[in-house]
Write a structure and sequence with these properties.
The complex is a heterodimer. By secondary structure, chain A is of the alpha/beta class. Chain A folds into 2 domains: 96 residues, Periplasmic binding protein-like II (D-Maltodextrin-Binding Protein, domain 2, 3-Layer(aba) Sandwich), CATH 3.40.190; 265 residues, no CATH class. Chain A contains 17 helices and 6 strands. In chain A, a hairpin with a 5-residue loop joins β5 and β6. Chain B contains 10 helices and 14 strands. In chain B, β9 and β10 form a beta hairpin. The chains are: A alpha/beta, B alpha/beta. The interface between A and B is medium-sized, with 26 and 31 residues.
């Protein structure tokens, strides 16, 4: 036991002190932060530039009627034709020319946008929806329907989903949130297994090519060396992961306070954990006195109501349990695959030879990711169920299912099987490992590995 | 007293017999040579002693009792395939290996400092292994093998990777360690390199040990009564005095002088030979030709092959 500790210490300290570890620890959160912040930042970037659009309206329906925004403005040109505009377009500073034919009310393709560049999506959707709305109103009025009636008819609902738990309580739930938590959990485990499993393998190959392994196993058992390495690298992973979480949160909170005003605009509509947090302030303002939803409630209010529900759901997800099980599957999955990676490393002389043995390790992991992506929409389906029980895929798939609520017995069964399989693969890998590390210059195939497993020692 | 006793060790890998009823006794405070060609089973035997591999049957006794896992602390092992972590610092690495051998940190540092001073490499403590030359690495390697003051030292092909200077240093250190009471096992396929160091040897070929015992005794056993005479004088006179009890094998030149090799047959002795030739030529040197370990080995392997056909030979 003392020797495992020594090996573990070495593995941990040499890795944590490496420059690459420090660089990765700093770069990781910056990368995560960038992924979360970039969309909002880009949206903000786009909105700073005002786009002036020339309108040539042959139908005369839209003159001075197209709604303008902070970034999109319209200039109505009369008695101009498109050909004329095209010739002098470069001399003007219009973003583009919107041409509306007189047939606009009856023909679909009677609106054309000319520009020297591809118009942005937001511009396109703003123009087409504005035109549609104006034509709709005209048609309704023509049919004798009053605008006020129309406003009161327009409805928008926000469906809340509430789960009845076994204890008979009601639990606010959010499918979107569960999906996000599931995705993050599943992908993190996948990522962790690959990244640090490969480190175990490389570590074993390093010891072999450096020819130090026989010196070490003359004082510790091969199994102790293997376990010390696997656990040591696992702790490196946990350390890095922990630092990432702390640093990412710091960066997000920092960036949030800087970018908050811009992020509050409706342009940031995607529901990501960051935008939830960013809207917290707004939500509280609306939540104070409960107002019955007025018929004229704007879209933004609806948005905030949704966020409020998300928050209630966020509170109702049992994060203690999720984080606890996450760490369990995180470690269980890593230990299971870590020993297999160690066995592969021991069987080869250099990293290029690992290909043929990597396949059976990679396939279940990739399968798990496919099931994670496809099965998350039906987390109680039989595919998701079986893959969350089978140990080789369970760490990833179970994490995806957990936020949706999984019966206790399934989680416990999955955990028990994972532990048993982990012991099994470690035992098997140990056998391959202790023979493999002393084998040099031999082309190893699966039949050879089977022989090693059968050796007495 | 025997320091290490190996009794009827068998070890087979799938489709391959590595050791076949090997027995040997290593006397305390001796230098013991484990000789044999590549693939004879030497390394397997050493790994069994080091508890790296387990034997199929047979026993290893250390100082009269069965060897245990804890005993690896009193063994220093320099394997044939040896190296160090390239990216680790010299001192840290040596300390790690010493601790793995059961030393506590404080004593380990103390002893390492002593050895580093002894080899005049104190400045290397904080250098990375990859910054050192091959010869420097060998010094570090040697230190890590002996730092925990093992009672039994095992060197597998020790001279193969060492340059002549370090090989010489290794030889001197080994002799010094023997004086201090260590028992040393050398394994090599290079017979001549160990001839001068070893007191005892065993010859291993094709998984079996063919010969075992004190090196002088074995040589005596294999000597074939051949004498070399360096002389001044006429060949014809010398040849004329040799009767049927002597067989002249060859003429050679030694140190610019003429020389002959003569086999003395059973009925006679070296003294008689000398008294025969003294009157006819001026004898400069007269010595018995002792077979080299190489010769003995080749002879032993032949005898063995003629004697029996191993049932395990495929």
């Amino acid at each position: 036991m003392n020797k495992i500790k020594l090996v573990l210490q070495r593995e941990y300290l040499t890795r944590v002190r490496k420059k690459t570890f420090i660089v990765m620890t700093i770069l990781g959160p910056l990368l995560f932060g960038a992924i979360l912040i970039a969309p909002a930042w880009l949206a903000g970037l786009e909105s700073t530039q005002t786009k002036n659009i020339a309108v040539i309206d042959s139908s005369h329906i839209f003159i001075n009627k197209l709604p303008e925004t902070e970034t999109i403005q319209f200039t109505y040109l009369e008695n101009k034709d498109v050909e004329n505009m095209r010739k002098r377009f470069e001399r003007t500073n219009y973003y583009g020319v919107l041409y509306i034919t007189h047939l606009v009310a009856n023909t679909k393709s009677s609106v054309v946008f000319y520009s020297d560049q591809q118009p942005s999506l937001s511009v396109k959707s703003h123009i087409s929806s504005s035109i549609e709305k104006i034509i709709e109103q005209r048609k309704l009025r023509a049919a004798g329907i009053d605008e006020n009636i129309l406003q009161s008819v327009r409805t928008s609902i926000n469906m809340r989903t509430i789960q009845w738990t076994e204890e008979g309580k009601e639990k606010e739930s959010s499918t979107e949130l569960a999906m996000i938590v599931g995705y993050i959990g599943g992908f993190l485990i996948y990522f962790f297994i690959f990244l640090f499993g490969a480190q175990v393998m490389r570590g074993v190959i390093e010891e072999k090519t450096n020819r130090i392994v026989e010196i070490i196993i003359s004082s510790v058992k091969p199994f102790q060396l293997m376990m010390g390495k696997i656990i040591g690298i696992g702790l490196v992973g946990l350390t890095q992961f922990g630092l990432w979480v702390v640093l990412t949160l710091t960066i997000i909170t920092g960036a949030q306070s800087m970018l908050a005003p811009e992020l509050g605009t409706p342009s940031a509509q995607q529901v990501s954990p960051s935008s939830i947090m960013e809207k917290q302030g707004d939500t509280q303002n609306y939540a104070a006195p409960f107002q019955p939803p007025a018929p004229t409630q704007s879209e933004q209010d609806g948005d905030n109501l949704q966020v409020k529900h998300l928050f209630r759901a966020l509170e109702d997800i049992n994060f203690g349990v999720i984080i606890g099980t996450f760490i369990f599957f995180f470690l269980g999955g890593y230990l299971l695959y870590g020993s297999l990676f160690a066995a592969v490393g021991s069987a080869v002389d250099n990293e290029t030879d690992t290909q043929q043995f990597m396949l059976p390790i990679t396939i279940p992991l990739i399968l798990a990711i496919i099931v994670l992506v496809s099965g998350i929409s039906n987390p109680q389906g039989s595919i998701a169920f079986w893959f969350s029980i089978i140990p080789f895929t369970s760490p990833i798939v179970m994490m995806a299912r957990l936020p949706f609520g999984v019966p206790e017995w399934q989680v416990l069964l999955s955990m028990a099987l994972l532990i048993l399989t982990f012991i099994g693969t470690t035992w098997l890998s140990g056998k391959i490992y202790r023979t493999g590390i002393l084998m040099y210059g031999k082309k190893v195939n699966y039949r050879e590995l089977w022989k090693w497993i059968r050796y007495r020692n | 007293m025997d320091f290490l006793t190996i009794k009827d060790i068998n070890k087979s890998f799938v489709n391959h017999l590595a050791l076949d009823r090997v027995s040997l006794r290593v006397p305390e405070n001796s230098i013991y040579g484990l000789l044999g060609p590549n693939g004879a089973g030497k390394t397997t035997l050493i790994r069994i002693i080091n508890r790296i591999t387990a034997q199929d049957s047979g026993e290893v006794y250390l100082k009269g009792r069965k060897i245990r896992m804890k005993d690896v602390f009193s063994i220093g092992y320099l394997p044939e395939e040896r190296g160090l972590y390239k990216k680790m610092k010299v001192g840290e690495q040596a300390l790690y290996l010493a601790q793995l051998k059961g030393m506590d940190k404080k004593t380990a540092i103390e002893k390492l400092k002593y050895w580093f001073r002894r080899f005049e490499i104190q400045d290397w403590w904080d250098k990375k292994i990859e910054e050192l030359s091959k010869g420097m690495q060998q010094k570090v390697q040697f230190i890590t093998t002996v730092v925990h003051e093992p009672e039994l030292l095992i060197f597998d092909e020790p001279f193969s990777g060492f340059d002549p200077i370090n090989a010489n240093m290794l030889k001197n250190e080994v002799l010094r360690l023997k004086e201090q009471g260590s028992t040393i096992i050398f394994s090599t396929h290079n017979m001549s390199s160990v001839e001068e160091l070893c007191d005892h040897i065993t010859l291993i070929n094709k998984a079996r040990n063919l010969l075992e015992g004190p090196i002088d005794e074995i040589r005596q056993r294999y000597k074939s009564n051949i004498y070399e005479i360096e002389y001044r004088g006429e060949v014809q006179k010398l040849e004329a005095v040799l009767n049927g009890n002597y067989q002249l094998l060859e003429h050679l030149t030694r140190n610019g002088n003429r020389a002959v090799r003569i086999r003395v047959l059973q009925q006679s002795s070296d003294n008689e030979l000398l008294s025969l030739i003294l009157p006819v030529v001026e004898v400069i040197a007269f010595r018995e030709v002792i077979p080299s370990m190489n010769d003995i080995f080749i002879q032993a392997v032949h005898e063995f092959a003629n004697d029996q056909t191993s049932p395990y030979n495929e």
